Amino acid sequence: MNDVLTIILGGGRGTRLFPLTHHRSKPAVPIGGKWRLIDIPISNCLHAGLERIYVLTQFNSASLNRHIAQTYRMDLFSGGFVEILAAEQTPEGEQWFQGTADAVRQAARHFRDVDAEYYLILAGDHIYRMDFAELIEAHIERDADITIAAQPVSTDDATQMGIFSFDTSGQIVGFEEKPNTERLGEMRSSAPAHSPAGLLTADKPFLASMGIYVFSREVLYDVLDRNRSVDFGREVIPRALDTHRVHAYLYRGYWADVGTVSSFYDVNLMLTRRGSPFDFFHPRRPIYTHPRFLPAARMHACHIDEALIAEGAYLDTCEVQNSVVGVRTSIHHGARITRSILLGADYYEDQFGELPLGVGPNAVLDRVIVDKNARIGEGARLVNERGIQDVDGDGYYIRSGIIIVPKNGVVKPGTIV
Fold first, then answer.
1. Distance between CA atoms of 103 and 100, rounded to whole angstroms?
2. CATH homologous superfamily for 4-271?
């Protein structure tokens, strides 16, 4: 895999993940109690022997820079690297990245001279475990110009994704970005019966792009230089179907886009369940992250069920069900946490003040995301009793019915939401 260069797209402002992206870029958002989203694509790359990785960002990249610098320190003699390329003003242009393709076009000045025959382009906010070596080998064996990883999806999911159409020989003949329900009804399926494009079922009749691309070197620069297309899914791929050999790589494993608050919440809760389709317990393909050298979690007289408790956490006489408890989290006596995601803390407090770090005594949380270094006062009740969908409150936000306490946020004692 020495002839492959990986480019991970860090995304835009991440407004759909606000307020989790208020102080950080999307790839830097914590997940599963101790990891960050960026750790997943990077770990997949490292397991496939892909050690030359650029991460493209333009918003709130400081914490992402710090995480990558502290985590991915390659062997000096391997030639490998994980490096941030942030949007910048140059003699060629002064605009922000306008889309996925435009981001690669603007950053290309930094890697055009890097020796690589193939480019693997990934998103920084997806959850999956894929063998990229198999993907790239399929690209080479088919003599493809562009290969796109694809998976079967339902009609509901298809409205939010790029959908392929295949002919009877298994060749891609169409690609539509986020078709509406009416259009999907006209299509009925991505492929006709008995097509070698892949076995599709009645509940998942469409093949959708996963936002994972392999480009042969000259093809990438050709499609970027030929016109000023800014997005791979909406513009570059549909136009390339008439001029290049575009193939799909069928993937049937678990995959999720965590670009919204609700999807982020759902994925985290999924991790707590027995038989989860994705977890961090793989025996041969672990997900790497920054080593913190924290003590084991400490718990006294607690009731815990279906939960992930990260290292360094301290739980005292509390109840935690169907929840994720992040690194260094403190949950004080009498608190009850259900169906919630606690991202943890960046530090321990030497002295407890009037409102200590973490979840205070007798607080009740249900369907809550608590960002890092937040303080929830004694007796606070965050359960969204009125079923509010979207609002900005005093020390909290509600998005898609989920209460979010922002990073460094403070919820006063006795608060009821």
1. 5
2. Spore Coat Polysaccharide Biosynthesis Protein SpsA; Chain A (3.90.550.10)
